[in-house]
Amino acid sequence: MRLYHLNCGTMYPYYLRRRGIIYCLLVETNDGLLLVDTGIGAKDYTTPTWFMHLFTQLVRMPCDVAETAANQVIRLGYQVADVRHIVMTHLHLDHASGLSDFPDAKVHISRPEYEVAMGRWVLMPRGYIADHWSHGPDWIIHEGEPETWFGFDSFRVQEGLRPEVLMIPLPGHTSGHCGVAIKTPNAWWLHCGDAVSRFYPSADPYCLSDGSPNWLVRQLIGEHVPRLRALIREHGDEVKIIGAHDSHSLARYQRIGRQGARIG
Prior knowledge:
By secondary structure, the chain is α/β, with parallel strands linked by helices. It is about 25% helix and about 25% strand. The strands form 2 sheets. Strands 6-5-4-3-2-1-13 form a 7-stranded mixed β-sheet. The N and C termini lie close together (about 5 Å).
């Protein structure tokens, strides 16, 4: 089994003096491929809605279709249909745009996130675009009694799935936001989505926010930065943390495992 680190959307926003990315994970499992978030999909590059066109212009995306998760899956030697599971940290446009590129995949989502995104709104909540799931995904909604993972609540994505994959509720950025934890022989990988700052310089693993005031960090990404710092401090040899826009970690792990890190 292999784990791949993918950039599914490069950004050069005016308000950020460095390259931004959309960090997705692709994992070989005993039930096909599993993708964590989708990044920007082909449709939003070729025939975008007016809002997606505005978004890609504001963040100065090159709009390179080769960066879509679907194209990268093919370049790695798989078929798009091999992606059987997509686990979403949340459904904001930069994370869910590529859902329609994988119409047959099961899409795993937390109950609170699903209810916000599917609610009856005159205007969609900020960051959501209903067109991204207008194809009618096969939703797998996770709720119920959680298990415990290093002191965090967790939900198992699927019984019997190997490697083990858990959804870790980290609400704040959205009400149903989740991290995604993947167990490998050497360590767990925790994709924190937007529960860590999108701009932090992750060369320092304890720097999970970008130096903004604590009240702003809590407003934008939730209350979890202190708990995640403690997780690294106490279990740093067991857990590797990455964020959805962490270009430093992406470059490092792509360099280490250029053909995908073998995990089993």
